């Protein structure tokens, strides 16, 4: 079963007037994982799709949705998959790719059939992002050993973290989709600080490995007019191109960042110093 929803893009001038409920309604994606279902959110930010797939006791096939107006989901799109649960398998046009937790798979434009299932005795949780594509690039699994790993932050600023670049142009060819996974070390809580914006691409953040009853406070909005959204484990948030995207938790955690837009330069960002935020 596939469930889907739609989100319009929001003007930053309008967002300044949003209260808590409106902010959460427009940007927060709460229920990504439902047993034996596929949950998809189609966003007008670069026509990006965010989704969660939870196969419990049956296979789940990625099907097209009305917004795409295409016979198959990937007729004009590319797909990034990262497993955030137990061991599972994705088959793409009959070719099987086994994914352990925190491993990724890139699926190129034009593939016809993508099927997800959990390994015996395991509960896989597949987090997916998808963006429009103009050409087909080869499918590729990115395991833990293939990731480009960067050490960031410091203990004294509570943001020491490990950034794992997974679906990026230095590892796999894509049209515009980029995804990676960042792990905060114990005792560290701040992510993406100093904050930044990038006008040529949007972003989506997915938070996981948050033990109850801990929480994440995700910061967004224009640098001089910020807003915040409190989030729980296995929730995602849309981040417009004009918005910062940073967060702090009541404990350490992991998160997946996904991006799409008109360039693949990871370093293309406008940094905002912490003392310049308002």
TrEMBL record:
CDD domains: cupin_KduI_C, cupin_KduI_N. The keyword Metal-binding applies. GO terms for biological process: D-galacturonate catabolic process; D-glucuronate catabolic process; pectin catabolic process. It catalyses: 5-dehydro-4-deoxy-D-glucuronate = 3-deoxy-D-glycero-2,5-hexodiulosonate. Its EC number is 5.3.1.17. Pfam families: KduI. Pathway: Glycan metabolism; pectin degradation; 2-dehydro-3-deoxy-D-gluconate from pectin: step 4/5. Coiled coil: none annotated. Its cofactor is Zn(2+). The keyword Isomerase applies. Keywords: Isomerase, Metal-binding, Zinc. Zn(2+) binds at residues 196, 198, 203, 245. GO terms for molecular function: 4-deoxy-L-threo-5-hexosulose-uronate ketol-isomerase activity; zinc ion binding. Binds 1 zinc ion per subunit. Gene3D superfamilies: Jelly Rolls, pectin degrading enzyme 5-keto 4- deoxyuronate isomerase, domain 1. Catalyzes the isomerization of 5-dehydro-4-deoxy-D-glucuronate to 3-deoxy-D-glycero-2,5-hexodiulosonate. Belongs to the KduI family. This is 4-deoxy-L-threo-5-hexosulose-uronate ketol-isomerase. It comes from Flavobacterium sinopsychrotolerans. The lineage of its organism: Bacteria, Pseudomonadati, Bacteroidota, Flavobacteriia, Flavobacteriales.
